[in-house]
């Protein structure tokens, strides 16, 4: 019987070990972080009189790694304070403590001998029931554990995290020959549910799934480039966003990974495969070997395929490597019909098709690379993974491709592309030809919202865990109750409906507001409660300020007033719905997006939620109830009629005044945007399910609607305190005159206007203050400039 995982030990505190320890700390699992004892004290330690006997010296590596976690960007920790959950130690003094943990993860250097020796030491303290895993990128799990006892091997497997562990969704689990299958299933569930990862089960083959296909893809791209004479920037123009892949494309990726590391990873396959053609594909091209020999390793050595230099006037410029001369030169931005068409096309499917059908040399490059990667992937089904779905997921989650290889193949037309491949003399795997001969035209099929994929010559249903609700699939099953261009109400079943935003960037405009009102009516009459969630890239980037700016520029003040009133009234209706409402935001949730969550009974946010009232950035203050809700919370939390509200309202003033955005869901709690009763989930795919369960729990417990409440405010005295703070910031040059003007209005609203301290005011009174301040700011030319800048440049302007 294996124990639940409550404590862990991570051995190796390098890039990955410290990142994994941070992620365990993120989800509340305390962990021991061990590394080797340094050979001698550093000069600094000696100067302090510390010897090699001192714990500060002996634990130096792990302790330094923990300290570094707090400074790393992007942050590996959801909240800096979580670093306290990691205890540093060393392998000589603290290894016996691994007997006390439930999961031991080996994350030391990628060297079979080192890993084998470490596993032997681990086994001597290991207790049955504790799972042991290795984070190797490609060493065989069976080889690594070959000398260990049978009981140990049953509890041992690979857990391959991708870098950085907090942010990369993919986790490959690699069972060994003897690993207990029940334990594999338990670890899969744990890594999905608790760590929030996307898990694929890989076979114990060199570099597992994502790095096997990914490395192959990078190598064929390099070979095509060298053979056909494309430039670095031409290849990147094709292999990045033009085909639904990250901006880092091929060469930025290689520069980031480090060319030496990449060669090491490729060599691992080269040394382990027998097939001649495959071996040849993994033989790294001469140019790469040459660059490694010159020490041009990419970003870490200052130059690789790209080099950043200071150009004229101190402006930095990125040069690219000319492979013919091995010299760096200014980049030449490639342009062509196919690249242009791909840019305009929407989504990876259409983009890839546009690239391929353009009929120019970029179309040829796309086809030549894709063809090889698709054929290679098809040839590896059964060898590196059991299914095409696992391969597709690994590439999407591990390399951030929008489409996996088999999805790409379907997108470009399976039958047509196989004909072309055969005409060009390629060998197409037999199973693919048989599949087509059976009359099939794609690897995947969607039937009434249910997805199937080809598995051993038959369509098999994609395993849909109940925790993962797909709105797209519900829509395909005709579960839309109501909808317009900006939002829809979808029946989640069991009496719960989901209000989904789907406007461009999920910005809130009139259509979304109309749908919120209609949904409130619909849920009031026909449902138990409502979830507010969507599965767009971001939950909501705020209210759509385009119309607002136009009306303000035309000085149509009644129209502006109408827009704000509509927003306020709609949020008010949502709050007053007599049924439970749970909002489930993810990623960017800004301005009006936050205000759309505030009326809910509970917020269940993704850990990756960047949440903030950022209106100040466009020269405004929150006027959709954001200020009012915050003032209400302060009044509720400081409930004793004599207690001092000022320190709490000051904090709100600072948060909104500085347009603070959380770096995680947990950070949103720290900033006070989320309430202590709100929840944060590591797995974003589970948000809608958990929100639905929360609605059902509230409904079952006998839901009590949120009642109208008076708000105790700090009044004129408190307003003066806040304004004084802002004036101080202006005088010391931190903020501009216009910032000060906005801050004064914000202070006026949060204080409840010019009333005596402790006055009780209504919610509507606070909304009126918000609206007046907002309207007056709309008339300010500098506010209009800020709005204009945001709309055209997508960034805040400081003026
Ligand atoms: P790293 O070099 O940053 O860290 C390796 C750690 O191992 C260091 O802290 C070092 O002190 C320790 N170490 C060295 N020799 C040791 C020994 N004899 N006994 C015990 N500890 C020893 O490396 P990393 O990038 O964190 O990689 C660690 C593991 O994770 C490797 O197996 C690597 O292949 C794998 N991995 C790395 C990445 C990545 O992107 N860096 C991604 C996935 C997996």
Automatic annotation (TrEMBL):
Database matches in InterPro entries: 3-OHacyl-CoA_DH_NAD-bd, 3HC_DH_C, 6-PGluconate_DH-like_C_sf, ClpP/crotonase-like_dom_sf, Enoyl-CoA_hydra/iso, NAD(P)-bd_dom_sf
NAD recorded as keyword: yes
Matching SUPFAM superfamilies: 6-phosphogluconate dehydrogenase C-terminal domain-like, ClpP/crotonase, NAD(P)-binding Rossmann-fold domains
Bilayer-crossing regions: none
Positions of the 3-hydroxyacyl-CoA dehydrogenase NAD binding domain: 7-205
Domain 3-hydroxyacyl-CoA dehydrogenase C-terminal positions: 208-307
Gene Ontology MF term list: (3S)-3-hydroxyacyl-CoA dehydrogenase (NAD+) activity; NAD+ binding
UniProt entry tagged with the keyword Electron transport: no
Origin: domain of life: Bacteria
Keywords: Fatty acid metabolism, Lipid degradation, Lipid metabolism, NAD, Oxidoreductase
Pfam families: 3HCDH, 3HCDH_N, ECH_1
Family annotation (Gene3D superfamilies): 1.10.1040.50, 2-enoyl-CoA Hydratase, Chain A, domain 1, NAD(P)-binding Rossmann-like Domain
Entry's Gene Ontology BP terms: fatty acid beta-oxidation
Pathway assigned to this chain's UniProt record: Lipid metabolism; fatty acid beta-oxidation
Protein name: 3-hydroxyacyl-CoA dehydrogenase/enoyl-CoA hydratase family protein
Organism: Cohnella candidum
Lineage: Bacteria, Bacillati, Bacillota, Bacilli, Bacillales
